[in-house]
Amino acid sequence: MALRIAMVAGEASSDLLASHLIRALKRHLPDAVFFGIGGPKMQAEGFEAWWPAEKLSVHGYVDAPQELPGAVGHPPRSA
Fold first, then answer.
1. How far apart are CA 55 and CA 69, in angstroms?
2. How far apart are CA 44 and CA 26, in angstroms?
3. 8 Å CB contact between 7 and 37
4. 63 exposed, middle or buried (CB, 10 Å; 0-12, 13-18, 19+)?
5. Residue ranges covered by each domain of the chain
6. 34: which residues sit within 8 A by CB, 6+ positions away?
7. Can you give the pLDDT at residue 62?
8. For residues 34 and 7, what is the distance between their CA atoms, to the nearest angstrom?
């Protein structure tokens, strides 16, 4: 059974850093599966995004309440 590693990266800089981490870990753990909340750079490394980081990236007091029902309700999960 492959090692499964959960990750959370909710904005662009963490998406970039996590994509480098995934690439480095795959050298040592080629069968590992990475999943969770992440962005496009992580997905390009084979990350399974159960919830896209863009949904969590909100700005200001107006955007946050509008996104809250989707974040705490039924999050999309592709896998």
1. 11
2. 13
3. yes
4. exposed
5. 4-72
6. 5, 7, 22, 25, 42, 45, 46, 47, 48
7. 56
8. 7
**C-alpha angle 38-44-49 in degrees, rounded to nearest 5:** 30
- Tokens 């040592």, located at residue: 28
Q: Which H helix or E strand runs over 2?
A: none
**pLDDT tens-digit readout, 35-75:** 999 999 999 999 999 877 776 665 555 555 555 555 555 55
